[in-house]
Each structure stands twice: as C-alpha cells, then as structure tokens.
Prior knowledge:
- The protein has helices at residues 8-25, 31-37, 46-69, 72-89, 96-124, 128-156, 170-180, 192-203, 206-238, 242-261, 263-270, 272-289, 300-324, 327-381.
- The chain is mainly α.
Amino acid sequence: MRRLYLDRNLQYVFGVTLMAVLGVSSIIPALPDIMKGLHLGPVQIGLVISAFTLPGVLFSPLVGIMADRVGRKVVLVPSLFVFSGFGFACFFARTMDQLLILRFFQGVGAAPLGVLYSTMIGDLYHGAERGQAMGYNASVLAMGTAGYPAIGGVLALLGWNYPFLLPLLAIPLGLAILFFMNTPEPLKSGSLKEYFAEALRRMKTREAMALFATTLLTFVILYGPLITYLPILLSHRFSASPATIGLVFLAASGFTGLASFQLGRLTQRFGQKTLLSAAAVFYGLCMIFTPQAPSLLLTIPPVICFGLAQGLNIPTVMTMLTTIAPMEQRGAFMAANGLLLRLAQTVAPMLMGGLYALGGMNAVFWGGFACAVAILILARFYIVNINPTPNRPDPAHR
C-alpha cells in the first residue's frame, strides 16, 4: 500500500482540515481571558463558540448541494478567504456584540470546510485506502486540535484577541489549492429533484441514521463538557493558565492522533462496530472521572480517554458515511453530517450552560456521560460493519 500521507492532494486536504478546526481550537485557552476582557459569565461564554458554529447549521445543506452540483473547489477556495478575513477582523473587536457578529461571518466561511475535507477524501481514495486516508486526516485534525490550543494559549498571554491572528493562514492555503490541487469532480446528472430524492433515500437507511446520530452525540460531548467547560474547570479549580490549559488539550489530541494513525490496522483486526463501542466506553470514563480529579495532573488520564475515543470514533464514522454515499451524493451526505455536527457545536454550549446553571460542573459532565451511553447503544444495536469497496475509482467523475 502506497504512502498516502506523501500524496500532494491529500496534503492539501490536511490543510483544509487544519483550518476547519482552527476557529474553535485556537481560542479554547483564551476563553477565561475573553470572559474577563468582555465581562462575560460562564453561561454567556458559550455564545463565542455558538456564534461561530451557527452558520454551519444554516448553510451546511446548501454547501453539500453546491459541492455536488458545481464542484468542490468552486465552493472551497472562496470559503477559505471569507474564513480568513472575518477571523482576522475579530482581533479588532472591542465589544461582545462586535465579536459575535464577526464570529458569525467567520463561521460562514468555515461551514464548508468540515464538509469538504471528508468529501474530497471520499472522492480521491477508495477501498482500504479510504479508511487509511481518513485515519491520517484524523491524525492531522488531532495535531491541529492539540497544537492550536498550545499556540493560542501562548498568544493569549499577549492579549485575549491575539489568537485571532491565526486565520490569516487560510489565505496562502486557498491560493495553493486554487492553482495546484487536482481532485475529481462529480458529474451533474439528472434533475435537482432526482438528486434530492436519491440522496434522501440513501440517508434514510438505518446505518446512515445511526451514524448521523453518533456524530451529533459526539460533538455534544466535545463542545459541551470538553471545549466549553473543561477550560473553566481547570482555571477555576486549579488556577491553570491559558498555556497550561492548552497543554492538557495537547495530551488528549496526542492520543487521538495515535489512535487515528492506526485506524486501518485496528479496523481490519476488530471491525468498525467494536471500535465505535470502545470509543463510547472511553467517552464515559472521561465524563465520570474528569470532574472528580483532585489535582490538575490527575485530570490528564481521563482527558486521554477522551482523546482515544475521538481517534477511534470520528474517522470510523466518516469512513463509513463516505463508503455508503456514491460520489454524486457524497457532498450531500457529508453536508448532512456537517449539519448535525454544527448543530451539536451550536447547541452544546447552551445546553451544558443550562445544566451548569441547574447543577454546576458535575451536571455538565453527567450530561456528557448520558451521550456516551447513547453512542454505545447505537454502536451495539444499530450500526453494522460496512465493507469497503475495492480500490477502484468511482465512475462518476470528470
């Protein structure tokens, strides 16, 4: 099997993936400082994340349709430029209202990124290579999730707004993709009505619905207890600095990368169903033990459990979805998945904010535990192993 991580097209996809996670991961350690700088409370701080993710809920279906009907790069390149421009503008925000408006428009640019990186992997690779490429990409995602909090934490030492310099990286990436990336594009065949009917028929299968639900629950856990409230827990209980908070997330993401990098081998040995079940157990362990940790050091083992769960769960779900979907509807499939992902990102901080108001930090993590149990039930009773297609290209590309 060739070394896919050396393929230039996959490296461009890696770049898109890194931009897709930058918008939230880079500001995680700065959230306590944003609270101080803009005079926000623990319940309100979730709006900084929700404003960014809301456009994904609103525009993900349109993104998938456009990617299938007019092409992947036509949607991708302008999105990178919008993401970069409004993200950089957040650096100059001086009020809560200004920051939320700019974050919303930055989110408009970010909405297509999470849809398109997985779609393009499905287009470029087939059979066992698809799962391997998805695993490599998840490792890159983990490196971004790990690296951006560390970088953002250091930048936040200069001021809460300094992490918003990082979106400028999307400009050279967009130019490189525009001029140098080669990726197959789907054929626009049949009417729009026929396109919708066929995509909806495939999405309504039991396997697809269970995978969509798994995505929703996964990102409720990620953007509720972990991204929004773990930094607050570490800051308030252990007086952790932004840089220290970034290092805790680095530990989680490191293990995500390790698990993802071995995804191809793990899938062949244990099967997708078992990997998703194991991920649910790791999520549950994290939710139980993190709020009970008596010291900052002892928060690391349960956070590592979360990292392992992410490395097993997310690339497996993505691989299964891109295998179910033909190229002509793959953008729509990943857009539907992206819609649920963004919905979870948007709702989770507010949902967990409500639990925090009712029962404090423990209530937030018990809410995450309930989601982990639901993922386990789906994995054991509603998801079946999906055999990959042979290593051959899809016929529908130009």
